[in-house]
């Protein structure tokens, strides 16, 4: 469709790169965590997500796309083609909370050793901005040649991906499916399938206040917590300090315990340490619990004993997806009850109903209740489809790899569309310095050169998708 597309893409990226980084920074400065307590007309997920959506749309508008804000729910920018048939990208401008443990300002882009640092540089404000500039490449092409693209190019801006994906669900209730869509919100080479996503809540009876006055840990249910605390009836001198549990006298007769772990995304628990599990082990080992509290802690100990669900009897695997994962996400104290959430990502060989049945039976045996909060079935687009093959071929051409499409445990926007995938920009083989964090964790960082490479790949991939018979 475009002569010398690779060379032109490379020259374009070099030309606009500083503008790209500036626009990523403008998005990172917005603390766009869901805040439904302050929802209002035009801002259904709260003021900050609405502000980030507006910022994303202003970037698209500046880059020459015709933008639409759907009353703060979601938005998009279009480059009209010769056909109403759409090729789409979809990224998101909302984030998980920044949390603690940062060595850099989480709400500004910092450059260090070839990396961009800040909440959202990888998930997903940086990649969304890449999709915007990929579209701008074609805006320029159309203006220069006067010839429309074969298909309409739509760049969708979400702002509720991290907490519920209500934005894309609303979108697909009100707009037609694109012929094909990719989201730049995952790993290269290409993700063609995603495990089922299951969220549940374990609730104790009104047992808090024996020896444990309060437990609190985790930020969101889909992340492994790096910190958890408990207020307990004790004196600091009576309790041992350990490498991973701090002991501090909160007030006379009450001690604050702070457990430390290693956080990460719920779908990738390998190498993490769940701080709630650390706290539970400390409380049990030192007998800091009444009999009813001990019963609940033993249940939590079973939840935290594995990340593949084997300690709960829900482990599963199959020929398409990696094995099931299950983690404890958050713990809170509500009306004298302890409330623990779990997050499981499951393959097609099991179901959310089967997971729920085992969890309900287990919790009842410990005198607790279990409720289902979310259950989304596994998603798969054929890796042999021409769209998937086109994107993988483009990635391999740029990198020299011979990679194939794969499946993951994470949940992206792709699972909501009939023909879609998640396409970069992360790569598990990238070397990362010790100080650099991952998405959802402190010091979220990503290499600038990988972002540049991804933008080139997106431009060439869109050009080649435009040549397919959709």
**CATH C-level label of the largest domain:** Alpha Beta
Summarize the main sheet.
Answer: 6 strands, mixed
Class from helix and strand fractions: alpha+beta
CATH architecture of the largest domain: 3-Layer(aba) Sandwich
- How confident is the prediction overall: mean pLDDT? 96
- Neighbour order of strands in the largest sheet: 1-2-6-3-7-22
Question: How many whole angstroms does the radius of gyration measure?
Answer: 23 Å
Secondary-structure map:
Blueprint: H1 5-28, H2 47-62, E1 66-69, E2 75-79, E3 83-92, E4 110-112, E5 115-117, H3 125-145, E6 151-158, H4 166-174, E7 180-183, E8 186-187, E9 191-194, E10 196-203, E11 212-217, E12 223-224, E13 227-233, E14 245-251, E15 254-260, E16 264-265, H5 275-285, H6 291-304, E17 325-334, E18 337-346, H7 352-365, E19 369-376, E20 379-380, H8 386-399, E21 406-408, E22 420-422, E23 425-426, E24 445-447, H9 448-465
Helix pairs in contact: 1-3, 1-9, 3-9, 5-6, 8-9
């Amino acid at each position: 469709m475009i002569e010398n597309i690779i060379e032109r893409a490379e020259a374009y990226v070099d030309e606009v790169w500083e503008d790209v980084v500036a626009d990523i920074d403008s998005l990172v400065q917005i603390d766009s965590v869901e805040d439904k307590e302050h929802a209002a007309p035009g801002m259904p997920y709260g003021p900050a997500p609405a502000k980030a959506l507006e910022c994303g749309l202003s970037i698209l508008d500046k880059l020459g796309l015709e933008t639409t804000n759907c009353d703060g729910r979601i938005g998009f920018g279009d480059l009209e083609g010769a056909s109403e048939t759409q090729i789409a990208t979809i990224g998101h401008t909302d984030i998980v909370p920044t949390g603690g443990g940062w060595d850099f300002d989480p709400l500004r882009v910092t450059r260090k050793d070839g990396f961009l640092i800040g909440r959202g540089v990888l998930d997903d404000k940086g990649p969304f901005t890449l999709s915007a500039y990929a579209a701008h490449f074609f805006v320029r092409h159309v203006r220069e040649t006067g010839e429309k693209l074969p298909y309409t190019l739509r760049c969708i801006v979400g702002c509720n991906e991290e907490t519920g994906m209500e934005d894309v669900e609303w979108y697909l209730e009100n707009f037609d499916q694109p012929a094909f869509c990719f989201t730049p919100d995952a790993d290269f080479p290409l993700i063609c399938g995603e495990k089922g996503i299951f969220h549940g809540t374990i609730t104790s009876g009104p047992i808090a206040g024996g020896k444990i006055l309060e437990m609190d840990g985790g930020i969101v249910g889909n992340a492994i917590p790096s910190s958890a605390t408990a207020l307990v009836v004790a004196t600091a001198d009576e309790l041992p300090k350990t490498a991973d549990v701090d002991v501090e006298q909160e007030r006379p007769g009450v001690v604050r315990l702070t457990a430390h772990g290693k956080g990460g995304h719920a779908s990738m628990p390998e190498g993490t340490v769940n701080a709630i599990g650390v706290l539970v082990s400390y409380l049990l080992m030192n007998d800091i619990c009444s009999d009813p509290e001990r019963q609940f802690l033993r249940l939590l100990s079973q939840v935290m004993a594995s990340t593949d669900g084997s300690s709960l009897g829900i482990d599963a695997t199959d020929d398409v997806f990696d094995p099931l994962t299950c983690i404890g996400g958050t713990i809170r104290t509500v009306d004298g009850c302890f409330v623990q959430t779990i997050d499981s990502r499951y393959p097609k060989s099991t179901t959310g109903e089967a997971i729920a049945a085992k969890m309900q039976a287990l919790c009842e045996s410990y005198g607790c209740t279990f409720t289902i909060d979310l259950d989304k079935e596994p998603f798969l687009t054929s890796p042999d489809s021409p769209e998937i093959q086109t994107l993988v071929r483009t990635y391999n051409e740029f990198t020299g790899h011979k990679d194939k499409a794969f499946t993951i445990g994470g949940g992206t926007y792709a699972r909501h569309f009939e023909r879609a995938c998640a396409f970069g920009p992360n790569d598990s083989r990238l070397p990362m310095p010790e100080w650099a964090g991952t998405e959802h964790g402190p010091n979220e960082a990503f290499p600038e050169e990988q972002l540049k490479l991804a933008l080139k790949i997106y431009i060439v991939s869109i050009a080649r998708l435009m040549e397919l018979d959709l």
